[in-house]
Specification:
Blueprint: H1 2-23, H2 35-40, E1 44-51, H3 68-81, H4 85-93, E2 109-120, E3 128-139, E4 141-150, E5 160-176, E6 183-199, E7 206-211, E8 215-221, E9 230-240, E10 245-253, E11 257-258, E12 261-262, E13 270-278, E14 287-301, E15 312-319, E16 323-326, E17 338-343, E18 346-351, E19 359-361, H5 365-379, E20 388-390, E21 393-394, E22 401-405, E23 409-414
Antiparallel strand pairs: 1-2, 2-9, 3-8, 3-14, 4-9, 5-6, 7-8, 10-13, 11-12, 14-15, 14-16, 17-18, 18-23, 19-22, 20-21, 20-23
Length: 415
Amino acid sequence: MKILLIALELLFFAVMSGCVGDTLNHYNRVKEPKAESLTDYKSVRFDMFAMEIPQESTSETTIASLSPAGQAEAVKILGAKYAKPEEFLASLAKPLETTAPPDSSVRSRFKRRIVIQVVDLPLLPADRLDQAIIHLSLEGAKFLSWDKFTTNHETIDLGTVTSTRSLTGTASLKATDPSGQAEADAQLQYTRSLEKEKNLSRRFAAATAVLSGNEATIALTGNDATRLTDNITVDTEIEVADFKGIEFGFFETSPLFKNSQALSPGKVSLTPRRSVQLAALQQLPIKVKAKMDYIVRHVIDGGDTMDEGDDDIELKPGSTDWVERVLVSEKEGKANTFGLSLGADGLVFVAGQDDRKQPLKFQNYSQALELRKWLVEVYGKGRPDARVVIGHQPLFIGKSETPLRGGDVGRISVQ
């Protein structure tokens, strides 16, 4: 009887121990895949694109946002400008007109946001991207600086997690002696508790970056519990390496006025000139190339504990192909030019000789204003409401451009 009870107890211990052992497996014995599957399977995806950095919105200034003294001064100015009461009241609700600051920007520099996409596609659940080194290089430009470097990974301290597991089993035994005259009952209850602590404070990815003129290098390193699947954002300032000008032709007019009087067209001469204009950024072949070198942590055999220190792993290095993207949009086309010519049909205007989509921009603002004034005086008989028309489109000379599109060729008239 006693021997039978001992045998049952040992059997129960063995069953319970086997159950507990299975619960401790971090991942149950990873089977090694076929060699050809590791070769054929692409476990990492990598891409990159560039975009303009969104500008922060600025609120318009109204009279309500001014100080009391400023409001009083604004009312005086608007009252003198708008004689009719309804126009004056409407002007009080409109944003105040402000003078645009002078353009002092350096044309050879611009900013772009580069977004790098890294996607980890593990062959097995326990595999992960352990390290990624991203290389960025520029064509036709160089890096100056960056002011933002953002990833989705950050250091998060989750503290210590304690898990307790209780396993309880009960065995009953009823035995009779060989004579059949004596019976004995026995019960056995067994409880086993398992307590496990795991520190989770290392759930982050270490990121370092180095920026030089020709190349930017970004290194991401994972750890026990982090997969390097991420979007990496870099805001960088770029300078065009070889910012050459483009030569174009135009016509320069002789003096159009004498003693404040407009000269007749027969006394006006046009002289052809050649000049150099700085190329627009849209004309330059500014491209960024990117590739990624990486290490995949492939688990061949998982250990019997929750720690990864005893895993049988294989580190598999790899590299992506170079990805090339345009940093500056090429939609706006070529340089802005305009020309004038005198012929049998009179004064002819040519806008945007290099491209048919680019808005016209004058090279000399004062001469453009003088030309418009002369046209109104000569062809419009000095009428203040006269419109200068090129072909079928009105001419408007502002600080930088007119609504004319490139490719417009026509006789100048005043209506």
